[in-house]
Amino acid sequence: MVYAIEYLAKALKAARENKKLSQRALSQKIGMPQAHISKIENAAVDLRASNLVELARALDLEVMLVPRKHVPAVNSLIGSSVLPGTERREQVPAYRLDAEDENG
Amino acid sequence: MVYAIEYLAKALKAARENKKLSQRALSQKIGMPQAHISKIENAAVDLRASNLVELARALDLEVMLVPRKHVPAVNSLIGSSVLPGTERREQVPAYRLDAEDENG
DNA sequence: CATTTTGATATGTTGAAATATATCATTAAA
DNA sequence: TTTAATGATATATTTCAACATATCAAAATG
Predict the structure, then answer these.
(1) Which of A84, B31, B70, B100 is most buried when burial is the number of CB atoms within 10 A of its CB?
(2) What is the pLDDT averaged over residues B82-100?
(3) How far is B55 from B58, CA to CA, in rounded Å?
């Protein structure tokens, strides 16, 4: 377990599930073995930075370096949608049965 | 050269220089060989995610996954201060001779 | 209910390639 | 001279791909 990147692993997993992609579908999309994606999402491996960027982009995310003092503002801006801990439980509004494509 | 992470490498280098830290000082701060930091800043190696997080935090930066649609807003929010090309020259106010701890 | 099938995810192994690290040398600049 | 940056070498550790297989959940079927 690589604790330092656990939050990134969880964010990647959450983003994939948000897009309703299976690990297999994602693996075919970027040409990375499904088994490796599983290990990454469980923080069982310390993935390389280029793989992090590639994986993120496949999920419409960008890896950014944010000054610590701006982190709260950024979090509120993006609704902490990619931060673990903000599980966004079954908060799905009853009137919205299907979310899927949230990005522009 | 690992092109996919070149922008991260440049951002790390810019952030370090902004804090007026030498590679050696940074290396001692986080216990990473100075020679390795040099390779990282030149994108000569594909560093591991945990090292990216550790390096970023030592420079008061956080590695975040930002939804693509929010990237422009985040960039304007943080003033693109960590994006290379925004060198932020000698903008240090004359009345402030010593910066160091910027975070609250 | 029990069984089986199906889909998705997790785990384990092997071998090749690359990083991580330490150390030392060189170069350049203050 | 002192400090900083880069480059080279050698060794240890780890990722990563490929592949097989195990686990788990849900659905279908007997």
Answers:
(1) B70
(2) 41
(3) 5
